[in-house]
Amino acid sequence: MQIDNPDRGFTFKSEGPLDLRLNPEKGLTAAQRLRGITRDELEGMLVENSDEPYAKEISSTIISFIKSGVQISTTTKLREVIAKALQFIPANIRDEQIKKACQRTFQALRIDVNSEFEVLYELLEKLPNVLAKGGRVAILTFHSGEDRLVKKSFKHFFREGVYSEIANEVIRPSAEECAKNGRARSAKLRWAIKA
Prior knowledge:
The protein is mainly alpha-helical.
């Protein structure tokens, strides 16, 4: 439910503080993170965490705004800066590209401020120790970077003989499920069984 709450700063569609923390009591907000980041770091984050094709343009514009004294402390301000960065895109496709870039940028920042990849990696490393013999695990991911980590881990432990079976193919939601729940469209499920 926190994703739908504008006060938590997870969406660029409505005004709110640029927070993005899953635990609002812990760590830096996304606004604080942006104030202390370099252009290269931000570009790398956008590429690694969200496969952002306009990472260079967006990171350069964000850092330029920050250096000129502009505070990027709200969701709508970040959206405005991203829109400025992408003014070179042809007008007939610009709005859609800005929307997608906002989704990816917010995702990249959320992953970063919550250390989501590190937490997932730690879980994947500990899984073999907590599963009983014949125990089953299923992991649902919503981003290609997460899916790559799960796939790589499951294959590694399968080759090591820790898992007796793993999903050969990713399981995706049906068109019907995606129609009922738009957030399901990026979901991927992988499973493994402990030997």
